[in-house]
């Protein structure tokens, strides 16, 4: 790659305006912006009064020097954003000597366009409120407060040849499926971050996914995402949870052959109680009772406290006409307090049909 000029060049950041702003005190709070980059404070804006409409004109410019030979490098520009912190200056009370301030929120400005050949760009960045800040939206649908920011360098930091010969990797996370229940907003809005470890050598794929989630939302999109992910996988043990989620979707959509194939694949390389249970359910739904019992027995051997495993064992024994084993499996199903009411109703229906299986008959 062509060498980058070692001459230091200033990078200017200008915060022009703020929108939909509010403060702790009064309808016209006094605020200022502090800019930071690479753990260095670049400066503070003047103290500006927010208008009753929630706007403020800061026209605050600060800068740092880009120098690939030392100080701020290309690596810093690629990995580190500019932090803009908005602070409110509270009105002085009687006999108060020192000025009191309260942080309202923070915004981040990504400098990546400078590594793509841009010499200037404008962006509207959201101002993320701190917990308890008046900037927090009281309900969904309210416009989020924001800052208008301009970034400028006198000339592009990289030439066309340097950009085309570079190895800049960009990763875009479009959606997350089966996120944990704790991610579901129950109060204050929260922002989440995903990290991706990139291999320094080789061509191995590293899909991004959240573990231990519960299925929510659009199953069609989630299924397509999971199918695309496992198409890259050679060793199923690396994607244990992805196989579990995809298998569960197939079961819910009554695609039992696909569910059986998915669970069987992961059972061979990364067996667990849940993989064997999924395979057992798929086989039971296909009326393959011998295969279902074999899989459920494997699941039971790994965890004999799973009520759902006992429930399906009870169903298999009921349909196979084995009264004593059916009643024993049902007894453990009830003892372990099966939570799936529809599955329990199915057991009761089969018990009534065959005339046995419930000791209370």
From TrEMBL:
Q: Where are the TPR repeats?
A: 240-273
InterPro entries documented for this protein = CFAP70, TPR-like_helical_dom_sf, TPR_rpt
Q: Which GO terms describe its biological process?
A: cilium assembly; cilium movement
Q: Name one GO cellular component term.
A: motile cilium
Keyword annotations for this protein, in alphabetical order, are: Repeat, TPR repeat
Q: Which domain of life is it from?
A: Eukaryota
Decide whether keyword Repeat is in the record: yes
One Pfam family in the UniProt entry: TPR_8
Keyword Transmembrane helix assigned to the entry: answer is no
Q: Which PANTHER family match?
A: CILIA- AND FLAGELLA-ASSOCIATED PROTEIN 70 (PTHR44314:SF1)
User: What's the protein called, per UniProt?
Assistant: Cilia and flagella associated protein 70
Q: Which organism is it from?
A: Monodon monoceros
Gene name tied to this protein: CFAP70
